[in-house]
Design goal:
186 residues, globular, 4 strands, 7 helices, four-stranded antiparallel beta sheet, alpha+beta
């Protein structure tokens, strides 16, 4: 929502928010592929692109995905057509040394993914409320090699009344602290 406080910022950033209400409407293959194409253009250390998106779109795999979420997230995430995890490889492929910037790089990929989704009329919601060990087991990934950064859902915004009553009042774009508060001069 455009305000005097955010007048310096482009609409693509202001219009991004993470709803909890999703419609089961699937994305077309082209729409879905464009999200990953956008993510793929994110910058990364040594151009390693350490991120990996693991998707749950079939009913069976979505049930397993939902089991990894906290009960609160499970209550609303179940309606999204795309569910998944964003993971990173912990080591550089070119030399097998630790990539301490992998999660930062994945955040860049996530931002591209979510802004592309918004450009197409879709929304994303990243979640920290999940069991990382259970997710690694589900994905058959080694914790020495991979880190599950976030769980996420993607889809069209759905009716607010489909949410549990306690979550309905949260279903509005949130505000931000003033940008001046995030600058620390040294």
């Amino acid at each position: 929502m455009r305000t005097k406080e955010n007048e310096l910022c482009a609409d693509i950033f202001i219009n991004r928010w993470s709803p909890r209400s999703f419609a089961k409407t699937p994305l077309s293959p082209e729409e879905k592929n464009s999200l990953f194409e956008a993510a793929n253009w994110a910058p990364s250390c040594y151009n390693e692109q350490p991120w990996e998106f693991y998707l749950a779109e079939k009913e069976e795999t979505q049930a397993h995905f939902l089991n990894c979420l906290t009960p609160n997230n499970r209550a609303w995430a179940q309606n999204a057509p795309i569910m998944g995890f964003l993971c990173v490889r912990k080591k550089f492929q070119h030399n097998q040394k630790e990539n301490q910037w992998a999660a930062f790089d994945a955040g860049s990929a996530w931002t591209n993914f979510t802004l592309q989704a918004n450009q197409l009329g879709f929304f994303t919601h990243p979640m920290a409320g999940f069991d990382p060990e259970l997710a690694l087991k589900l994905l058959q990934l080694d914790s020495e090699e991979h880190l599950v950064v976030i769980a996420f859902v993607t889809g069209k915004h759905g009716p607010t009344q489909d949410l549990p009553e306690a979550l309905q009042k949260l279903e509005t774009p949130n505000s931000r602290k003033p940008w001046q508060d995030i600058i620390k001069e040294i």
